[in-house]
Design brief:
homodimer, 561 residues, alpha+beta, Flavocytochrome B2, Chain A, domain 1, Sulfite Oxidase, Chain A, domain 2, 4 domains, six-stranded mixed beta sheet, five-stranded mixed beta sheet, disordered N terminus, iron (chains A, B), nitrate reductase (NADPH) activity (chains A, B), EC 1.7.1.3 (chains A, B)
């Protein structure tokens, strides 16, 4: 395809083209749209934040970068391959000469017209790369300083092909006057977590940066979890946001956009309250590891689950205002993607988003208080019944799309597999976790001593939860099953779906083999059954997956003797 | 409460009263409404067909029957108790004198103003009872002949309190000239099944009257089950219906009614096609019985499940036309009750009925052919994803109600319980089965012999099904799990929910302990995981219930050696 100063007519005949950058294993879909001028294309990118228009590209520029036209099937979208040849050619320019002081680099921060980053002691001008960056604008968070602390979080970057892309943009090195032992000093590197909020020390911390901490046993006794003890699952730092002026963008499948400030959302749409449990896909992962072998991920015990009353506006109302009519859905409107300010993103099926009983909220408050920063201030999504990973915090964009969110949290991390798929799980074929399966847990068990010091009764409590709706009869016992008492039956308004856990309580006699026999170990086992009569698997072995997701086997606890 | 010729003012102050007939353990709710005349009440009955107005009752008549006013709590509904004293008093009239020829009894059939029935050799005029009959008008089917063949089906009648009620209406005995050996001869008794259709002999019959038969293994291999091999689950005889003139009544919570003929339904509403699997709650009951002990009910193997393409009109469209707006649902509109012509009835939650993706149909055709009589001709309900017991055949009435259907099939038969609740299950507390839990079954397994007569490979097939939506990876194996190949991935239109089973196929090497060892028995085990990652329970023991419902444990088959 020779360079050409006018966009070829067959290009103009179609509206949209898809570009697959061949040098990356996770393809990013660029697209080009016609403009009013025949020699200009508008370049956009399907990032995790959905399609974004970035810049106008002269056809000649595109052609000179060796864009290879690979097909012109009538009526279909057009595939480009940008060959790496391009970049190798561009790399030859004088990149080894210039040096920059750190003070100068810092001026090229995220607000600059020409953002720069440092890797090692090299300096890169990423201005031209930002639009093509698969992760979107988040790359600007690193601008003005070192990119390495961010790559410690976004570890997907630590590979040769990514290093190679970055090398294209090298403009020089850090001045030796600013190096210590040949390195950029620690203090000169921005800590992205420096503005994270203070947390309650009662939370059981798994990782500090990003903050991941579970609800302590004492708070699992309550139906509503206090905000400060609600479990925290952060993938990154906590964004520092401007509150009511914060804007979210809603983009339709046809690329049209509508922006709303938080203030506007609060004022223009009716407020709704939904009480729902949120649960991490990894809750109880530790018990799967203990029972069935090593799993990758935070080793949550039973506290990666909490319940709150959320207040906000219904997503379905806002989407309708933005132009998405549930009655007349475009064929392509299959998924609703949510993007967070820090970088996180996930999606839910359109059906859940606009289900009149789906109760998906854009929430501003939690248990009557302003949304805490750790839980998404100023606005987050709350998707009842669905894995909490889809309840995106610090919401910045909503994109209606034919596809699921392209992020790793949708495409990889929150999936489960056949127990035999340990080494090479079928990432693409496996479904992303959405509605949560039925589970239950024992949070407390005791055998109080009687007047003679004997143990006569077992007293236990815990919770049961299912994403599919109200659930009932968790039953516990050993060889025989007993029905536990369910608390929280009045928690839901009549007619509305039950999105919450139900705490249970069991009191019964100590089994004969337990009392009087100091060696006799008795185990209390709990399993729950949900509204569709689904019940929990008996063992973790039968649902083992190397990610340790959905560790929903019968829970067990040793009865003290 | 003394007899009174004017309805007491406190009665007129309320609109509706509830009457509980104290002599019956299954309460029937009669209600009384005011009329324009101060001394008349309008009597109605909440039957399985919903509230029906039956007759005007003079207050004095009601009072003279010793209706006992038991409370007048302000604002609440009013409870009456009709004491059995009444009936004992009425029983004294001359009932032993008159004799009737069978020819005369036959004239008092269901179309007569004064329907009679025979029990033993006694004759009863049930004219006054029909309105109060808890089962509704179906009692008229027996009129003009013996009621006993019907009580053999509706066995709930075989108890002293029911006999006692019938005795109130005795008017005489059958003339001895018509008796043989002191009994009414067999030929004189109507066989309600005499008009049942002919069936394909390949169906595996469990009971002939009513007809209950499962799909043979040969037909379980196909995605679509041929109409003549679709499993049949009838609770009664097959009604003989007049086709397009057949009328269904839709009753709103406020008692208003709208009637539609089948012809009108077909002409006035858009036609839709839905392919869905229907499954009996008792499918695989036999395996629960074998594994965990005796269960009550038809001992289905794996064939009480079939799949068809149904065509009809959407329930939600028809309800909207009848006045039920999904946007403005009355608070009391909680359930949609369906009544069949023969007597059967069941209900679904309103949410399922009007869910835009619920796909509930009033179906007229099955796999492109007119609905066969065994499957509900001329119109049946099809409730995808829900236990087939709610897909009521031979539909006659739809009732919007605050309550579930009062029939035994909603209140008792289709429920499951804690394994320990064998003797006295908590009928009222247990939920009626609606959405189906995930299940799977092995329908065929073989180990074909190689050239040396050795068995080298296992070849197996079966199905997986879940009511909650698309399902994936049934995995099978022994100590290790292997993922089976799922067929039928293209079966659903894009965007629509997956209401169908997925057939699976597995081919793998024969395990070492199987080949070469004539004694070594190897079992193939299958379990499926659904869209919400719910999976099947490992054993039937853990989900055992005396009804044998939802026998969804891992399926097993011995591998031939």
């Amino acid at each position: 395809m020779p360079p050409n100063h006018t966009v070829p007519s067959q290009f103009l005949a179609r509206f949209e083209y898809i570009c697959r950058l061949t040098t990356r294993t996770r393809p990013t879909r660029c697209f080009y749209q016609r403009t009013a001028q025949p020699n200009l294309l508008r370049r956009g990118l399907h990032s995790q934040a959905g399609p974004k228009h970035k810049s106008n590209v002269h056809w000649a520029t595109l052609a000179s970068r060796s864009a290879v036209l690979v097909g012109l099937a009538a009526g279909s979208l057009q595939l480009f391959h940008e060959t790496p040849v391009d970049r190798n050619q561009q790399k030859t320019v004088d990149t080894k000469v210039k040096t920059f002081r750190l003070a100068e680099v810092r001026q090229h921060d995220g607000s600059s017209q020409n953002p720069w980053v440092i890797r090692g002691t090299s300096v890169y001008d990423i201005t031209d790369w930002v639009a093509a960056h698969p992760g979107g604008d988040v790359i600007l968070t690193a601008a003005g300083g070192s990119i390495e602390p961010f790559w410690d979080i976004f570890t997907i970057h630590k590979r040769p092909d990514v290093y190679e892309i970055l090398e294209e943009y090298k403009i020089g090195t850090v001045d030796e006057a600013d190096l210590e032992d040949g390195r950029v000093p620690q203090g000169a590197i921005v800590d992205p977590f420096q503005n994270d909020p203070a947390r309650d020390p009662q939370l059981i911390t798994h990782t500090a940066c990003p903050r991941n901490a579970e609800t302590p046993q004492s708070a699992l006794k309550d139906f509503i979890t206090p905000n400060e003890l609600f479990y925290v699952r952060n993938h990154f730092w906590v964004p520092d946001v401007k509150g009511e002026d914060h804007e979210i963008t809603i983009e339709m499948v046809d690329g049209t956009e509508r922006k709303y400030t938080v203030k506007e959302l609060k004022e223009r749409f009716p407020q709704h309250k939904i009480t729902t449990t949120l649960q991490c896909a990894g809750n109880r992962r530790r018990s799967m590891t203990d029972a069935a072998g090593a799993t990758k991920g935070l080793q949550w015990k039973v506290g990666a689950i909490s319940t709150a009353e959320w207040e906000g506006v219904r997503l379905v109302d806002v989407l309708a205002d933005a132009g998405l009519s549930p009655k007349d859905l475009p064929e392509d409107a299959q998924h609703v993607q949510f993007s967070a300010m820090e970088a996180y993103g996930a999606s839910i099926p359109i059906r859940k988003a606009i289900d009149p009983w789906g109760d998906v909220l854009l929430a501003f408050s939690m248990n009557g208080a302003e949304l805490p920063r750790d839980h998404g201030y100023p606005v987050r999504v709350v998707v009842p019944g669905t894995v909490a990973a889809r309840s995106v915090k610090w919401l910045s964009q909503i994109t209606i799309s034919p596809d699921e969110s392209p992020t790793q949290w949708q495409q990889r991390d929150y999936k489960s597999f056949c127990p035999s798929d340990v080494k090479n799980p079928p990432w693409e074929r496996a479904r992303s976790i959405q509605e949560m399966p039925v589970t239950s847990a024992i949070t407390h068990v005791e055998t109080p001593r009687g007047p003679e010091g004997e143990r006569q009764t077992i007293s236990a409590e815990g919770y049961a939860y299912s994403g599919g709706g109200a659930r009932d009869h968790p039953v516990d016992g050993g060889q025989t099953w007993h029905e536990a008492e369910l608390l929280d039956n009045q928690a839901q308004a009549k007619g509305s779906r039950a999105w919450c856990w139900k705490r249970w309580r069991y009191q019964g006699p100590t089994p004969a083999e337990c009392s009087g026999s100091p060696e006799g170990k008795t185990r209390l086992v709990v399993k729950a059954t949900d509204e569709a009569y689904n019940t929990q698997p008996q063992t973790h072995e039968s649902i083992f997956n190397a990610r340790g997701n959905l560790a929903t086997a019968w829970d067990q606890a040793e009865v003290p003797t």
